[in-house]
Amino acid sequence: MTEPIAPIESHPPSTTSASQSISAQPATALEGERNLTPEEPVSGPRITIQYCTQCKWMLRAAYFAQELLSTFSTDIGEISLVPRTGGLFRVTIFPSTTTSTSSKEGAGDGTVLWDRKRDGGFPEVKVLKSLVRNVIDPSRDLGHTDRALKKGSTPAAPTALAPAPGVAATAPTPSAQTATSADKACEDCQ
């Protein structure tokens, strides 16, 4: 066997005595960027995605956040994931005029773009992007997302799917409903 190789450090620690203090240099912003302090207002609307941790919807919330950031990049000041319980999945946008990193999402000045209970499920990504675009910049073209929505292939709001004629709706099996106490789903989500 070979002996392990010590990691190569690009900046090895300096040798200083305990009486000497090392001052940390502030991070410098790259060209065209600036550092934000926690008290400084964010330069765009804030979007919160509240999701139910008991239902294990964190990955879904993170996926929606990733898609919004990919599409709108610097037009959005902040996207935050807010863990909740009780089957909640809600996307809220707060205007940029009153947005700061220290503001609370319960301030009442936000607009709910999507609520799972109100709108009947989860949004398709293109629908959520369209809702965010309508608040941020209604004149913005979303390319293939807009073309798909204009074709009418996806309705703006979800509709309940009825079973095909002559096909009975199936109920979940009892084994699918059982869960351990640690993995117990919300009563609202079942």
TrEMBL record:
Zinc-finger as a keyword of this entry, yes or no, is: no
| Keyword Transmembrane helix on entry | no
Annotated region Disordered: the residues are 1-43, 142-190
What InterPro entries does this protein's entry cite?
A: Selenoprotein_Rdx-typ, Thioredoxin-like_sf
Q: Which Gene3D superfamilies match?
A: Glutaredoxin
Which regions are flagged for Low complexity bias? 12-29, 154-182
Q: Which UniProt keywords apply?
A: Redox-active center
Q: Which PANTHER family match?
A: SELENOPROTEIN DOMAIN PROTEIN (AFU_ORTHOLOGUE AFUA_1G05220) (PTHR36417)
Protein name, please?
A: Rdx family-domain-containing protein
Per the UniProt entry, what species is this protein from, by scientific name? Answer: Aspergillus pseudoustus
